[in-house]
Amino acid sequence: MAIREGRWDCPSCGSVGQLGRHVYCVGCGAPRPREIRFYLPENAEVVADAERLAEANAGPDWICEHCGGSARATLRECPGCGAPRGESAAREVIDYDLAAVPRSGEAGGGSPPPPPSAARPVAAGAAPRESKFGRNVFVMMLLAVFGLFGWANRTRQVEGQVAAKHWERAVNLEAYRTVTEEDWSLPDGARRVRSYRAIREYRRVLDRYETRTRQVSERVQTGTRTYTCGQIDRGNGYFEDRTCTAPEYETRYDTETYREPIYRQEPVWDTRYVYRIKRWVPKTTLNERGDTTTPVWPRAAVSDTVREGARTERYVLTFTAPKDKRYVAEVTLPQFTRYRVGEDVPLLVKNDVARIDTAAAN
Predict the structure, then answer these.
(1) What is the mean pLDDT of residues 201-217?
(2) pTM of the entire structure?
(3) Cα–Cα distance between 288 and 165 in angstroms, integer?
């Protein structure tokens, strides 16, 4: 794998771009401190020199526990103070994802290297992230819009006065009559008029097979590709390309022959009956309406052949409110009989629809 020489910035004199091989600043002679961060410029070339490659492959530098200077892994004594290595610790080897590789240093200070990032490279052409200020403004605008919408659609309590009352009641009458119907069977009590054969349904039946062709595609792996997916800071001023492999595919097309089933719709015949039978059927609707406090039901004349069916009722109060507003509310019968014209009633109004505030009214 390819080796590239990194750089570091001297925190003592501010000299930038020191070659990774140098354990002392070429500007001021200060030792490379233990907390220095190596970085790899974008245009760093692959190391081909045998001596440099030997340095890179020797292992991470060690930090002298006596003077704090850096020493190559091949040295047994510190080049700065002459102390033996002893228990002096080696620099950390850091494995970076490609997007997290440091590309520049900070002159005048050596900050500890950041932990390797799990972030992956951003796709080319990706849009820059929206600024925090822009996001905040957008969120505030949304909140303002929703706030105004909620305020306009809130439930308000207003004091209304009964201006008018109206009620409607209806009774549906049914008659017991002989009617003519038809079905696939005769119900109890029916008198058959006639019968005939008819198609009851259609059944899907396999008729034949037809030979057809179609284009089919298949993703086939043709090999693998190797690419640089990260950099390893070897702890001695050099970086090693970390490579990954990914399969390569191509789409292959072929013509496929197949047999397609062809279906037909086959009728299913059955006997259909026409008959006469006694049924309760709708006859008429009787209505009553008015603006009195005591509603009444329509009077219905019932007999063996006429009966009452469903009943319906509706009670409406019209209210006047401040600013000449008028509201119409459907109410229950107890509420209708309770409130008189001219009486004040607490209302709950939302979107110009009113209802009686039962909690305040009680």
Answers:
(1) 97
(2) 0.47
(3) 14
pLDDT at 115 over 50: no
- Give the pLDDT confidence score for residue 132 in this predicted structure: 57
Distance CA 123, CA 198 (A): 67
Written as six digits, the tokens of 70 are 């850096």
Q: Which of 104, 105, 10, 20 is nearest to 55 (CA)?
A: 20
Q: How far apart are CA 16 and CA 31, in angstroms?
A: 14
CA distances to 156, 277, 322 from 358, in Å: 14, 51, 20
pLDDT (0 to 100) of residue 121: 40
pLDDT score, position 106 = 57
Nearest partner of 245 among 224, 220, 223, judged by Cα: 224
Residue-level pLDDT at 323: 82
Residue with tokens 């790899």: 40
pLDDT of residue 148: 56
**Which tokens is 122 given?**
């951003």
Contact 173, 284 (CB under 8 A): yes
* Mean pLDDT of the chain, nearest integer: 88
Q: Which tokens in the block code for residue 131?
A: 């600024």
Smallest Cα–Cα separation from 91: which of 236, 232, 242?
Answer: 236
Q: How far apart are CA 45 and CA 180, in angstroms?
A: 98
CA-angle at 313, arms to 310 and 315, nearest 5°: 175
d(CA 269, CA 159): 69
* pLDDT bucket at 20, cuts 50 / 70 / 90: very high
Nearest to 246, CA basis, from 221, 229, 219, 225: 225
Mind listing the pLDDT tens digit for each residue in 72-90? 999 999 988 889 998 889 9
Q: Rounded distance, CA 111 to CA 128, Å?
A: 27
According to DSSP, the residues that pair with 199 across neighbouring strands are 269
End-to-end CA distance of the chain: 86
User: Residue 226 has which token pair?
Assistant: 């190797």
In order of 138, 279, 300, the CA distances from 127 in angstroms are 18, 74, 77
